[in-house]
């Protein structure tokens, strides 16, 4: 029997093995203690690694990419990936295939819905005795077709020449509706539409984070709820990882796609490909879309022109496809890059991509704390459009309100601002068409010349004067760029300039220069 001596140590007495411990019990105890020691060592190692990562991050450059939904934030980050971490980009590229399928199928289903509506309306009008031999009468607004209430202006429009071909196309492409539903479940939150706020009695706030900042105590750090936001499993990086591993991104395990489901999507799409092409190139369908002022080719996630290539069984997404693919960001997604060129070679960059819909913006605030620069995207082609989440609000006006709040944030008073006046390619197309007049939406626009340059200059001045009037001291310089971030060539040059600006200003504020 072993005798133990505990000179007045109550803990040692408490933890001591029983005095009558048998050799077997001792062996089991020692094995248990050994396992516990290993766990403790592993935890120590993890804590050390976390501390090292936090220290490294402290020395890195932190950039927040902000702007309303569909302003091009994720696309800008994709450009950074392309330019600075091409291997990671390549690893991820194939996973975008499912998202591109969904983008394509959504466009097809959108056309089918409109076609069905138009055919039904025309059918019911043609059965009315007065219109049997006369042109179909439509209300002047492009959307309503059958309302004959008093006081409306009506214009006579020739009926569309629908034939049996359109009925057949509708029938043969009908399975795509359930494929879309499957893909949406499969992809998860990023595939869903944002919550519709337009039926709310009150307008929602453009910058709900301003209220969070106002309420935050000035002395305390607005601590980041790290685990929830950064490791949020609904960010698109996680979505892509799951798509790559063939798992459902839906939290509901009952919704897991059956094995081979992706193969069946590929098969259905390949089978539908000729009919999709026939639908998209059909003259009557094009006329329907035109009359309704729908320009699918300018909306996000447009792939109808590439249907034969994308619906091929061996389809692999190209860089350009990935850049044009649309997946809504939900939560906040962190990206890290190492600068591979110039004097700052080896420096770590951390970029944060956020969800831009109004209801997501309160979640931005915790990331304001220690950021060095903000890239703010304002899509200026949207001067005549409204927010998807609230059709009462003009998109450029929303961007301006958002910018005002960011400029007056106390926490951001020392942060470098870089403005991307984005979607200049779409602005050019819109101005050339001449269907919308900028003065109808921004009556102060006074330039005689109406082109991309003058419109961009008008908005740049508006953003600049807001920054100038904000309270920061010393006044900050605004670096504004006209961009079309789906164009990788022109964007690469902009990103180099942005990188140099951010690095320079970060060093200046750290008193290194
Ligand atoms: N033509 C054109 N399309 C663009 C441009 N910038 C972005 N897009 C497209 O617009 C869509 C939306 O872009 P995203 O980068 O996903 O927008 P986001 O700001 O991240 O949107 P949220 O994640 O909802 O906040 C994508 O399909 C892009 O390909 C541009 O400059 N020109
Ligand atoms: Mg995004």
Record keyword descriptors for this entry.
binds magnesium ion; binds guanosine-5'-triphosphate; 6-stranded mixed beta sheet; 48% helix; Rossmann fold; globular; alpha/beta; 2 domains; single chain; 513 residues; 19 helices; 8 strands
How would you explain this protein's 3D organization?
- This is G-alpha-domain-containing protein.
- InterPro entries: Gprotein_alpha_su, GproteinA_insert, P-loop_NTPase.
- It comes from Piloderma croceum (strain F 1598).
- With 513 residues, this protein is of the alpha/beta class.
- The chain folds into 2 domains: 197 residues, P-loop containing nucleotide triphosphate hydrolases (Rossmann fold, 3-Layer(aba) Sandwich), CATH 3.40.50; 177 residues, no CATH class.
- Helix content is 48%, strand content 9%.
- It contains 19 helices and 8 strands.
- The strands form 2 sheets. A 6-stranded mixed β-sheet has the order 4-5-1-6-7-8, sandwiched between helices. A two-stranded antiparallel sheet has the order 2-3.
- Helix 5 packs across helix 11, helix 6 runs antiparallel to helix 11 and helix 15 runs parallel beside helix 18.
- The termini are far apart.
- About 9% of the residues have low confidence.
- It binds guanosine-5'-triphosphate and magnesium ion (MG).
């Amino acid at each position: 029997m072993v005798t133990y001596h505990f000179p007045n140590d109550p803990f040692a007495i408490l933890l001591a093995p029983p005095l009558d411990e048998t050799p077997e019990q001792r062996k089991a105890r020692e094995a248990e203690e050994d396992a516990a020691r290993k766990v403790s060592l592993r935890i120590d190692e993890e804590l050390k690694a976390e501390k090292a990562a936090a220290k490294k991050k402290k020395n890195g450059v932190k950039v927040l990419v902000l702007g309303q939904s569909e302003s091009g934030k994720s696309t800008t980050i994709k450009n950074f990936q392309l330019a600075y971490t091409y291997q990671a980009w390549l690893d991820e590229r194939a996973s975008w295939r499912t998202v591109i399928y969904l983008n394509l199928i959504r466009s097809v289903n959108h056309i089918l819905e409109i076609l069905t509506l138009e055919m039904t309306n025309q059918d019911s009008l043609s059965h009315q005795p007065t219109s049997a031999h006369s042109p179909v009468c439509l209300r002047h607004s492009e959307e309503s077709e059958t309302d004959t209430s008093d006081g409306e202006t009506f214009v006579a429009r020739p009926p569309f020449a629908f034939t049996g071909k359109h009925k057949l196309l509708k029938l043969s492409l009908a399975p795509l509706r359930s494929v879309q539903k499957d893909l949406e479940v499969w992809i998860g939150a990023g595939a869903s539409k944002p919550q519709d706020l337009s039926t709310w009695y009150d307008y929602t706030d453009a910058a709900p984070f301003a209220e969070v900042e106002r309420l935050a105590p000035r002395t305390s750090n607005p601590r980041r709820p790290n685990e929830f936001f950064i490791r949020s499993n609904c960010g698109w990086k996680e979505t892509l990882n799951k798509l790559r591993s063939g798992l459902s991104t839906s939290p509901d395990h009952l919704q897991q796609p059956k094995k081979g489901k992706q193969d069946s999507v590929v098969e259905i799409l390949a089978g539908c490909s000729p009919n999709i092409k026939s639908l998209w190139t059909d003259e009557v369908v094009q006329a329907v879309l035109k009359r309704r002022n729908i320009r699918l080719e300018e909306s996000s996630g447009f792939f109808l022109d590439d249907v034969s290539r994308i619906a091929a069984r061996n389809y692999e997404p190209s860089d350009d496809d990935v850049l044009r693919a649309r997946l809504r960001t939900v939560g906040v997604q962190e990206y890290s890059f190492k600068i591979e060129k110039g004097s700052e070679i080896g420096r770590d960059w951390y970029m944060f991509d956020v969800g831009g819909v109004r209801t997501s913006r309160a979640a931005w605030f915790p990331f304001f704390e220690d950021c060095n620069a903000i890239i703010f995207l304002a899509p200026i082609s949207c001067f005549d459009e409204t927010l998807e989440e609230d059709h009462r609000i003009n998109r450029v006006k929303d961007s301006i309100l958002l910018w005002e709040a960011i400029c007056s944030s106390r926490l951001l008073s020392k942060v470098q601002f870089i403005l991307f006046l984005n979607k200049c390619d779409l602005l050019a197309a819109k101005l050339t068409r001449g269907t919308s007049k900028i003065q109808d939406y921004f009556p102060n626009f006074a330039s005689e010349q109406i082109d991309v340059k003058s419109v961009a200059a008008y908005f740049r001045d508006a953003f600049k004067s807001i920054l100038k009037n904000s309270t920061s001291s010393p006044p900050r310089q605004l670096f504004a760029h006209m961009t079309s971030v789906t164009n990788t060539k022109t964007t690469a040059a902009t990103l180099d300039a942005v990188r140099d600006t951010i690095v320079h200003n970060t060093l200046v504020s750290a008193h290194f220069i």
